[in-house]
Fold this sequence. Notes:
- Chain A is of the alpha/beta class.
- Helices cover 37% and strands 24% of the residues of chain A.
- Chain A has a six-stranded mixed sheet, with helices on both faces. In chain A, strands 2-1-4-5 form a four-stranded antiparallel sheet, with helices on one face.
- In chain A, a hairpin with a 2-residue loop joins strand 9 (225-230) and strand 10 (233-238).
- In chain A, helix 3 packs parallel to helix 5.
- Chain B has a single domain, classed as MetI-like (MetI-like fold).
- The N and C termini of chain B lie far apart (63 Å).
- Chains A and B meet through helix 2, strand 6, helix 3 and helix 5 of A and helix 5 and helix 6 of B.
Amino acid sequence: MAPAYDSTDAPVPRPVSGEVVIRMEGVQKWYDSFHVLKDIELEVRKGERIVICGPSGSGKSTLIRCINQLEKHQKGTITVNGITLDSHHRHLDQVRREVGMVFQQFNLFPHLTVIQNCMLAPMKVRGTTKAEAQAIAMKYLERVRIPEQADKYPGQLSGGQQQRVAIARSLCMNPKVMLFDEPTSALDPEMVKEVLDTMIGLAEDGMTMLCVTHEMGFAKSVADRVIFMDRGEIVEQAIPAEFFSNPKSERTRNFLGQILSH
Amino acid sequence: MIRAFSYNEFLFLLSAVQWTLALSAIAFVGGATVGLFIALARTSDVKAVRLAATGYIQLFQGTPLLMQLFLVFFGATVMGFDLNPWAAAALGLTLNASAFLGEIWRGCIQSVPRGQWEAASALGLRYPGLMRYVILPQAVKVAVPPTVGFLVQLIKSTSLAAIIGFTELTRAGQIVNNATFQPFLVFGIVAALYFAMCWPLSLLSARLERRYAVATR
């Protein structure tokens, strides 16, 4: 696969007109007195690929973790696939079944083999048979190009391989949306590419994706929209060409100056 | 009438070992069963459940085991039903063991990294599945060495059941000593028998610890 993410030509803006998959309205969150999300308004349409960037502590991870409620928001509404996240456990379960997540630290289950990691949720959450789960798992392990590692334990794999397994594990639930929380930040530099290539492959297949990442090359070549967050607010959002060449806010310019200056 | 310490006395002590082992086994199985629920309650998201479990643990850790045995033994009589020393010792030790095992296992459950809970939740697993398939299998590996270590404590603790009149190894020693007046010899043998039960377990605990240290490297 071509390493599309390090190409420098700006992509043609892709018209995205699908149904709204995620809608956040007036979302607020505090950690004690620290206001971590301030009045977040966000709409994500089917097939859209969004990159969220911003300085550390800006609330970008918290934002995507609210979408599957690993963090609870205190005000505002979040609707995923038409289901509003409220205090009903049933709603939360429905949303989590349709939203996959990939973490910075992979979070594979160390006591299970690679294929068992992939089979667990389809069997225990979706109730598929063992044979079906196995077939699904192999399909996605082939997709992330490590079917030969199926019977190894996560500890025997490299970081890049582990992260690809984590992506496959999420895909086995056939999610409608994928959330990526700094998926390459814990990787050695030589392993970043294999993970980004996997993500690009997903994007090309039309997966709806929200990625918190510092990989600006990925943002430029893959994102339909780049969102910049600072101090709990969405400061700016634009298509990548505009975002990188003509940032509107001072804070965005400062941030881009810092991360692109090397 | 004073008897000499003979082979028969030794056999009597040896046969009392089975009661010590039986009492230990019952207290361990009972304590483990109740203790699992205590550990789950201690790590619950519900504050009231957590507080109740904390109170239970502090009650049993903060009072002497002997008082707990007395309270069960005499308390049963006060409440109008007759508990024989056997049942009282088993119940008292079960309650005590459940508090200690609950606290040991709480630590083991909490030693499983937060990311494991998050990944399992994000995949849609609810609490029972998350615990059963993801958290507890990892906690068990951490729990085995300290649990075996606690079993050693428990075997030695059963000697207190002698005081409420249950004839296990220590009580058998008292009986033999009352007849032979050779306390150093008698209690030396009793101690050696406890050592013979506990030492292999201590070795096992140390070995398991080394093995899991290698496995998780």
